[in-house]
Structures are given as structure tokens and as C-alpha cells.
Amino acid sequence: MVHFVGAGPGAEDLITIRGKELLERADVIIYAGSLVNPGLLKYAKEGCAIHDSARLTLDQVIDIVKDADGKGKEIVRLHTGDPSIYGAIREQMDALNELAISYDVTPGVSSFCGAAAALNLEYTLPTVSQSVIITRMDGRTGVPEKESLESLSEHGSTMVFFLSAGDTERLSSRLIAAGRDKDTPCAIVYKATWPDEKKFRCTLENLPEVARENGIEKTALIIVGDVVEPSGYEKSKLYDPGFTTGFRKGTDS
Ligand code: SAH
Questions:
Q1: Measuring from atom 21 of ligand 1, which residue has the nearest CA?
Q2: 19 lines ligand 1 (CB under 6 A)
Q3: Cys staple from 68: which of 32, 73, 158, 250, with CB 3.0 to 4.6 Å?
Q4: Which parts of the chain sit beneath pLDDT 70?
Q5: How far is the CA of 162 from the centre of ligand 1 (A)?
Q6: Which residue owns the Cα nearest ligand 1 atom 4?
Q7: What pLDDT score was predicted for residue 162?
């Protein structure tokens, strides 16, 4: 049996209790060494076989899984953040389906939540933005045409860019050319929740400069939108004394 487990954004204590227990029981752990905090491997039991998937191809990962599963072993496939976001788990699940190997998924705290925590930020502020677009800029991996940065930007929603910190110059100039105000508040968060986390608030225009000056090129998220530096917003209706909810009678009725 294979357990896909979200490791969380970085801090060792941000894995879920379920994820930690699965690590403790695993006979084999295959972890994404490029991003997963290796400190989490301290939860592995003695004798657990540990593989770094950063050095492996998909076929090699599946071969390790097939061999271990054939021997009745418990396998943890440890992915950074939450496995459903840029985790390349679908292709692994499809290969496991073909081999009739069973699996389940334990979610994790995605780095975009870790970054919001680092910035004390609420993504969904009433009257400012009620939507978060999780995306990436096209690079060596393309994005579908209908999801180009320019077309997604038209919504004016909060945007969180994964896998794009290597070319903030292009990201910034394309968003500005697409009509986003150059003074739009932005943030860049490097290694959110890790001990060496770095976070900077800036504007869309000076984002490339801030990234360059601080040597940030990878393992970072870029957040674009007024929620980063809101000039005003409406308070939530949920806690408004006038507003009746299923749990509380307001003064409006
Ligand atoms: N499944 C992961 C994302 C994997 S894609 C998740 O849910 O977070 C890898 C990209 O995620 C990196 O290039 C970077 O953009 C982002 N990332 C992962 N961990 C991060 C962290 N701790 N801080 C900032 N960005 C991070």
C-alpha cells in the first residue's frame, strides 16, 4: 500500500498528525528531496529504506514502489506542501492503478497557506478580493493557452504564483502590460515556514529588484493583489451584530 503524504510547507511541525504517523510506520519512504525538509525523516523507524525522488525518474519511483509493495511493505510517498498542487501525483496514481497497487492520500499544508501565515495575510477580504488564483508562469513547462498569465490577470483577483520566482522580471512586465497597475501590492516569500524564511512586501513594478537584491530565484511564491496591502475592506457579515446566521440572531430581524 502506498500513502501519498503532504509534508507541509517546510517547518517540521507543520506535517499533519496522520502524516507523521504514516512516516513512523513506513518501511519505505520516497521523499521529494528538492523541497521536503529532510528533518521530517527523523520520524522514520530504524531500518526504513529512504529514497530521494529528486534523483529518480517516474519509472524508477514506480519500480521501487512495485518491489516494496510486492513484499507487503508500507510505502510513504512524501510530497512538499499539499500533494494536489504541482505534486505530479496523477501520473503516479495512474501507474499504480495499472499495477493494481492500492494507495491513499493524506493532505498537507500547502506553501501558499504557509506564505499567508508568514505575512499575516487574509487572501479573501470582503470587497477587495474573494478569489485566489493559484497558478504558475509558463517556462520550460507550458500552461494551457486559456490560462495565460494575461487572461487570468483580467479578473483582478488575488494571484499566487508557484514555480515562477526564477523570472520575476518577465512576470512583472507581463502583468503590467496586461493592464495590472504597476503599484499593485505584491509579496515574495522564500521558504515560507522554514527557519531561513525570507519575506518581502513590494509593488508589482519593483518585484524584480526586490527578488534580485535578495538573491531569490527559487523555492518562493509571489503573491499579487491588494490583499497584500489593503487600503480598506468591509468587515465580515458573519460577525456583524446586525446579521442573523444559523447560529446567532442578529439585531436585523
Ligand atoms: N505541493 C507544493 C508545491 C510544489 S511546486 C505545495 O502545495 O506547496 C514547488 C513550488 O512550490 C516552488 O517552486 C515554490 O514556488 C513553491 N514552494 C514550495 N514550498 C515553498 C515554501 N516553503 N515557501 C515558498 N514557496 C514554496
A1: 191
A2: no
A3: 73
A4: 253
A5: 6
A6: 86
A7: 98
Per-residue model confidence (pLDDT) at position 47: 96
Atom of ligand 1 nearest to the CA of 164: 15
Tell me the pTM.
Answer: 0.94
Residue 238 C-alpha to ligand 1 middle, in angstroms? 32
What pLDDT is attached to residue 95?
Answer: 98
pLDDT in tens, 84-127: 999 999 999 999 999 999 999 999 999 999 999 999 999 999 99
Place of cell 498542487: 85
CA of 192 to the centre of ligand 1 (A): 9
To the nearest 10°, report the CA torsion of 78, 22, 91, 132: -70
